[in-house]
Amino acid sequence: MxxxxxxxVLQPAxxxxxxxxxxxxxxxxxxxxxxxxGRSVAAALLAAGVxxxxxxxxxxxxxxxxxxxxxCFECLVEIDGMPSRQSCMVTVQDGMRIHSQExxxxxxxxSDLDPSQASTENAHGR
Length: 126
Description:
Elements: E1 23-28, E2 31-36, H1 41-47, E3 54-55, E4 62-63, E5 76-79, E6 82-86, E7 97-102, H2 115-121
Parallel strand pairs: 1-7, 3-7
Antiparallel strand pairs: 1-2, 3-4, 5-6, 5-7
């Protein structure tokens, strides 16, 4: 396994949205990171050098994002207290508290979900 990060942050093209250049503060496993805004949680964490996002429920093997498009579920993390979030499908926000997911997690009851966030997760509102 290499000790160098596998991903690097590309410089924004001239004339692009300034949001991508804004640096925001997030926490992953209680460690503070300054990351560029306007990208997914997974992309921000990978660019910050995080290599292990979760552990498998059976063997505890380390996992990290693979497809970066919501198909593989390898990037599951807990975001702001909500377990089993696909970090590649959630836009990073200033002040987010993210924790690696260790083993299997139960989803919270529907009554605990914020209805305003449900439709922003994906086109199907799940």
